[in-house]
Specification:
Length: 115
């Protein structure tokens, strides 16, 4: 097992142990081997679901970072083109492209916030 996987496993085991002890300390009458087994199974399902959700959120965050990087590169190139004397006729096209890119970027951020 890699160090990262071992650390993840240790954190998960510590979390389930702590949650299980606190849960059954508050409900001693419900404490038993089968109840503890059911508790752990439920905890594992919830942990796995949250891990998938977290992985998806990280992937979306990375995708938005890439969109932002591309947007900044485009913005820098647009500004450079506008500043060049030969680029003057291109200003309106570049500004329209910049506006379009900004709208796409804003839409991506809004979509990430909603999910």
């Amino acid at each position: 097992m890699s160090d990262a996987r071992e650390r993840e496993f240790a954190l998960r085991e510590a979390a389930v142990n702590d949650a299980e002890e606190r849960y059954f300390k508050a409900r001693p009458i419900d404490d038993g081997a089968m109840q503890r087994k059911a508790f752990r199974a439920g905890f594992d399902r919830a942990w796995d679901a949250k891990e998938r959700e977290l992985a998806e959120a990280r992937a979306e965050c990375e995708r938005l970072r890439e969109v932002a990087k591309k947007f900044l590169v485009f913005l820098e190139a647009s500004i450079y083109s506008i500043q060049r004397p030969s680029g003057q006729p291109e200003i309106s096209r570049l500004l329209a492209d910049l506006l379009s890119a900004a709208k796409c970027h804003a839409a991506a951020i809004d979509a990430a916030r909603k999910s």
